[in-house]
Automatic annotation (TrEMBL):
Co-factor binding comment: Binds 2 [4Fe-4S] clusters per subunit. One cluster is coordinated with 3 cysteines and an exchangeable S-adenosyl-L-methionine.
Protein name: Lipoyl synthase, mitochondrial
Cellular compartment(s): Mitochondrion
SMART domains from the UniProt entry: Elp3 (SM00729)
Cellular component annotations (GO), alphabetically ordered: mitochondrion
Molecular function per GO: 4 iron, 4 sulfur cluster binding; lipoate synthase activity; metal ion binding
Residue numbers spanned by region Disordered: 35-56
Pathway: Protein modification; protein lipoylation via endogenous pathway; protein N(6)-(lipoyl)lysine from octanoyl-[acyl-carrier-protein]: step 2/2
Enzyme Commission identifier(s): 2.8.1.8
Residue ranges of domain Radical SAM core in the record: 146-367
Cofactor(s) it depends on: [4Fe-4S] cluster
Ranges that cross the membrane: none
Family statement: Belongs to the radical SAM superfamily. Lipoyl synthase family.
Length: 413
């Protein structure tokens, strides 16, 4: 900031804005005014107040705390403190209401990692969409912020970023008539993933009820292209229900993928109030059962959200139905309200309860269960486990069992 301007000069400047002189006079006035300012900055100040040091707004921001300092706790909390549910009063006087504060175990850091920025730039340059961004996943900092792009996990979303359904929990854009499919997307996606060098990729897609096949052929073509360009890459497909057309489910299941995933999202009782009316609990079970019948070697996977108001009895019923239909992997995560337009959170489930359901799922015979407040359908640790299982199965088929300990593990798988 320049030195303070004497009052007489401020008055001169104010007066000049009220009566505009001839342009030449204006230029002359500006030169005179600038010269006066330079001379005044070198002259001895008339007042005793020290000259203020120049600064910028950016300096103040850089010197202060970062946004993540307000999100993540600085000191570890005890178990009792961490599990305590806090409330707050909001609203004007006389109409205040009590809301539940976000628990400490659900607070995640703001993405600042350089690798996160690189991946985001790559995806935009390739024209790819991710469910990580569209669904506002809280794990995006962890999954995209690995030591390298090859170690990162990003769930690629096919067929655009606009869904034809309107589930009450989902923040993905919706429309009855989304833009047409990009016919080059299967080829471009396969080429991009090949260059990225991933060992395991998760594909998902919006529901496209506006298409006769629900997008199944687009799905199949993309998976086949990936397998052609990168045969060793493992592909997990998190599909929709294709509006109950099991022939389309079979088409995708036979396309060469390694893991067939389809989410039931919640219990059967809550399904009508949580999911779009076209999404049905029994229909989702049939999708998973059909994929397994067509390809018995496929790993089938589903995911459920907790905190929607489900009861323990309803949870047991859902897990039993999944096992009846030979579902291999199940994940549990906390429902988190994307915006105020979406359904509210009924309950914040504690990490201890998530661990209890993980143990129960494994006791029921599931191959693997990832369970925790921040666990989502595409979960890095779960994908690492599944990748390991698939590689061991491949080694077993090829007769590559040199280590007796490995052989014992393969027998269990």
């Amino acid at each position: 900031m320049a030195a303070s301007i004497p009052r007489s000069r401020c008055l001169l400047q104010s007066t000049s804005t009220r009566s505009l002189p001839h342009p030449r006079a204006t230029r002359s006035c500006r030169r005179t005014f600038a010269t006066t300012l330079d001379s005044s900055s070198n002259a001895t100040p008339q007042s005793t107040n020290p000259t203020r040091t120049s600064t910028t707004f950016r300096d103040k921001i850089n010197a202060g705390p970062s946004f993540s300092d307000f999100v993540s706790p600085n000191a570890p909390l005890s178990t009792a403190e961490a599990y305590e549910i806090r409330t707050a009063q909001v609203g004007p006087e006389g109409r205040k209401k009590t809301i539940t504060r976000l628990p400490e175990w659900l607070k995640t850091p703001i993405p600042v990692n350089q690798n996160y920025k690189k991946i985001k730039s790559d995806l935009r340059g390739l024209g790819l969409h991710t469910v990580c961004e569209e669904a506002r996943c809280p794990n995006i900092s962890d999954c995209w912020g690995g030591s390298s792009k090859s170690a990162a996990t990003a769930t690629i979303m096919l067929m655009g970023d606009t869904c034809t359904r309107g589930c009450r929990f989902c923040s993905v854009k919706t429309s009855k008539a989304p833009p047409p499919l990009d016919i080059h997307e299967p080829e471009n996606t396969a080429e991009a993933l090949k260059r990225w060098g991933l060992g395991y990729v998760v594909l998902t897609a919006v529901d496209r009820d506006d298409l006769a096949d629900g997008g199944a052929r687009h799905w199949a073509e993309t998976i086949m292209k990936i397998k052609q360009k990168a045969p060793a890459m493992l592909v997990e497909a998190l599909t929709g229900d294709f509006d109950g057309d099991m022939e389309m489910v079979k088409l995708v299941a036979k396309s060469g993928l390694d893991v067939y995933a389809h989410n039931i999202e919640t219990t059967e009782v809550l399904t009508p109030s949580v999911r779009d009316r076209r999404a049905k609990f029994r229909q989702s079970l049939e999708v998973l059962r059909t994929a397994k019948e067509v390809r018995p070697d496929l790993i089938t996977k589903t995911s459920m959200m907790l905190g929607l108001g489900e009861t323990e009895e309803q949870m047991w019923d859902a897990l039993k139905e999944l096992r009846k239909n030979n579902v291999d992997v199940v994940t549990f995560g906390q429902y988190m309200r994307p915006t105020k337009r979406h359904m509210p959170v009924h309950e914040y489930v504690t990490p201890a309860t998530f661990e209890l359901w993980r143990q129960r799922a494994l006791d029921m015979g599931f191959l693997y269960c990832a369970s925790g407040p921040l666990v989502r359908s595409s979960y890095k640790a779960g994908e690492a486990f599944i990748e390991n299982v698939l590689k061991k199965r491949a080694a077993k088929r090829n007769g590559i069992v040199d280590d007796p300990l490995v052989g014992q593990t393969l027998k269990q798988i």
